[in-house]
Each structure stands twice: as C-alpha cells, then as structure tokens.
Amino acid sequence: MNRLKLCLVLTLAAFFLSPLATYSVLAAADGDCSVDANGYVNEVAAGGNHKCYVDMQGAKITWHALYLCREQPSLATHRDTCEEIFYSTTGVQVQFLPGTTTNLPTNSDVSLPVGTYNYAVTKVGKYVHDKMVLRFSANRRGRTGTGTFCWTIANREYVKTNRLYSKSGVECGTEADSLAAGFTYQNSAYIVLHGNNLANESTWAANSFGKTSKSHKVSDDTTLYTPIGGFVGTCPTDVETFTDTGNYTINMQQLITPAVITPDTKTIQFSMGLTGYGMVSQRQAGDGSGARCPAGGADCVIALRSKAPEFKVTVY
C-alpha cells in the first residue's frame, strides 16, 4: 500500500445546495416552507406538529473523530478498517457558519494512504447546537412572546419530542428582539422514532444526496448506548430536559463524490449542510391539547432546528 505522510490541512466549512439570502428558502416542494412575495414564511400550521424546511444560519458540534473508508464501514470494525484523520477524547467544539472556513487542529501531520475513499465516519458529541432566525408573514407564538420574527434561544435545550410551545427552544417577537438569537442545543436523544419508542441506531438508508448513511448512539467508540428501560426507550413527551442521551453520535455516510487522495493532495475540507436543513415545527392554535398551543392566539412555533446533519468531503 502506498502510504504517504501528507501535510494535510483539515478544514471545516458550511456548504449550500442553493444560493443563500437573508431569508432564503427553497421552492415549495418536498416539504420546503412556502413563502410570500416578500420571501417571508407563510406556511400554514395545519394541525399539530406541522413541519417544513428552510435554511439554517449556523450549527455547532463537539467533534471527536473523523475517518475515511474505502468500503462501507461498521460500528464494530470502523476503527480498524478505516483511516483515522482526527481523534480527540475530550473533543473540540467547532462552528459551521455561512461563508466561513475553519482549520480543525489535528496536532500533527496526517498519514493517509493514497487511494479512493467512498465513506466518511464522524464521532460527535451528544448535542447539536442550531441557530436560526426566521420571519413569518403573520404573528407566531414562541416560548413567551408573539411576533413575526422567531429565533432560537441561546443555550436553551430542545428535546425533539416536546410539543409544548411554553417549553420550546424558540422565542418570537420583533426584528430588534431577534438580535438576541443564539445557538440552542438540540437533545438528539436517539436516532429514529418507532411509534412512541426510540432506538439507538438506524439502518443504512438513502439520505438527501441519494447516497446511504447510518447513525448510532454510543457510549464509546464501538458500544451502542442502552436507553432507559432496555434496548428501546420510551419517548419523552413534552419535557424541557432529557438526560438519557448517550455520550456520542457516530454517523457513517457514503460520500456524494469519492475522495481521491493523491501525492499532490494538500487539503481535506469537511463541510456541513445548512441550506434546506432547518426544520420549522409549528402547531395550530387550539389544536389537540390546549396546553400545547392554546386557542385564541397566533399559531405556535414549537421548534427551529436542524433536521439531520449531513456532510461532504472535498480534497484539494
């Protein structure tokens, strides 16, 4: 095997699947939020837990490991069969913002065999931190306020299965108020929902790129996290905090374009998608349990969060 010690710079960036504007959203298709002539979101909250998708303004994660793999990896063997590019026991918090690039410290040169890599494996911390500010065409209710601007509340935990507006990680008000927007942290307790239950791993399935991916909640590099109550845990409903989260998430993803490493390769850029990755979850006023979004007022925004992190790797 032709193994070269390459002086690679590992960089992090945000990537976009369409141009980004101040309130950019995608065309109304496949669940993307509808907008009016001004570009303001006018998606109607039909019933409870209504979702549509927009762009995110930023994301933060705690990065623990990055691998490139020639063949489809597995949780049990990925550390042996894939090439380690970055590993940190304590983790490094990294931030993805539109139009920015940041070096991820590797502490040394990266030794990587020349060849073609078709998969990437990432190990990240248990929380995904999301930042979004969104303008609606009519008033919406957030955690305590009402207005046409809604935003993520800095340092507020968001539990995916919460449906109460009063326990959300979203506030609404005026444009001036929205300047307080920060990164809320999403408690991605488990990977998938099965009815009222949550699992600690998914199956290989097609992602937004038409490639395959798989995720695991783990307690270390190769051990699946065991939820409260055994292999499958009960879904926490309408709670503000949830501690049963596992320690890390390991994501395995087939690359859109294989990463071809040659003796001339100098940079590996690892990018996180923001365009179209912001989930807007709304509840119609008076729908279902009145406490979730009481009647007699504006519809409620229950969540502004990333629908799922997806990545791509580019080499130079």
Q: Total number of helical segments?
A: 2
Largest sheet: 9 strands, mixed
Structural class: mainly beta
Mean pLDDT: 79
- Taking Cα atoms only, what radius of gyration do you get, to the nearest Å? 20 Å
Strand content: over 45%
What is the helix content?
A: under 10%
Elements, N to C (H/E): EEEEHEEEEEEEEEHEEEEEEEEEEE
Distance between the termini: 21 Å
The stretches of 5 or more residues where confidence is low (pLDDT under 50) are 15-30
Task: Determine the oligomeric state from the structure.
Answer: single chain
What is the approximate shape? elongated
**Topology, number of strands:** 24
Structural overview:
The protein is mostly beta strands and 316 residues long. Helix content is 3%, strand content 47%. The protein has two helices and 24 strands. Strands 4, 5, 8, 9, 12, 14, 17, 18 and 20 form a nine-stranded mixed beta sheet that branches. It has a four-stranded mixed beta sheet with strand order 6-2-21-24, with no helix packed on it. Strand 10 (133-141) and strand 11 (146-152) form a beta hairpin. The two termini are 21 Å apart.
